[in-house]
Amino acid sequence: MAMAVPVSARPQSPEGFYAINNQFQTNGPKGFSEIKILANEDMFLRMDLPGVPDEGGLSVYHNRSQETVVVFAKAPKVHTHDSTERRYQTMTGIGCSCCAISSITTHMSDGVFRVILSKTRIDPHRSPCTVLGCSGFREDLRGTDPNDPALTGPVLQPHPLAFPQPTMAYESKQLPNGKLFVRADMPGVPKENFTVSVTNGRVKVTGQAPAVSHDSSGRFYSGDVAMLSTPVDIPSRRIKTIAKNGVIRLLIPPF
């Protein structure tokens, strides 16, 4: 009988993981977030919030006194074996007194939150305004440069906005009945863009996340999530999967 066991994260190259925010990402913009000033001076922000549903999981508040936008999000437990629900909290906005936020356009899909902040000039005599970015993101993880070499490295980073644990992109649990439960975050991937295969005893998941709105580009994820004790090929239909909100969960039985 072939038993499934979890696997340790392996860097894709001698330089380390392509994206230290997610061990499965192999190309596309890196970082938990991406900030971009558009041609019309609106601010675009892409923020990975894996597990948060498209509807009902997000609250956005405009703090007019400080011209900031506060975001609260909840990723509920989807499977019995999820360790816990996850919550996210952050703040973004403009950092000056010369402008005011005039409109907020939000979009939540497949575990990714996108927002466009438009502004109105209220004091033309002051210096141009600046972007605050996202509180909670370390300076080198803000994602303002999605090709920043600092976002590639040997050490994976936990999600800076998620609480409580788990905050990493991979979770596994060996069950008493011999099955293995696995959760893998691949934010931006629609449920129909996930694939699962079992070849030579390795359980592999891939996911294609298309570019949405002002994303720099799409993203691709690929990696082993489990290994069987015997190097066999198994039809993927024998593995129960749940794919939603940029997260795929697998329940892998003994074969």
Automatic annotation (TrEMBL):
<protein>
    <recommendedName>
        <fullName>SHSP domain-containing protein</fullName>
    </recommendedName>
</protein>
<comment type="similarity">
    <text>Belongs to the small heat shock protein (HSP20) family.</text>
</comment>
<dbReference type="InterPro" id="IPR044656">
    <property type="entry name" value="HSP14.7/HSP23.5/HSP23.6-like"/>
</dbReference>
<dbReference type="InterPro" id="IPR002068">
    <property type="entry name" value="A-crystallin/Hsp20_dom"/>
</dbReference>
<dbReference type="InterPro" id="IPR016952">
    <property type="entry name" value="Small_heat_shock_prot_prd_pln"/>
</dbReference>
<feature type="domain" description="SHSP">
    <location>
        <begin position="161"/>
        <end position="255"/>
    </location>
</feature>
<dbReference type="InterPro" id="IPR008978">
    <property type="entry name" value="HSP20-like_chaperone"/>
</dbReference>
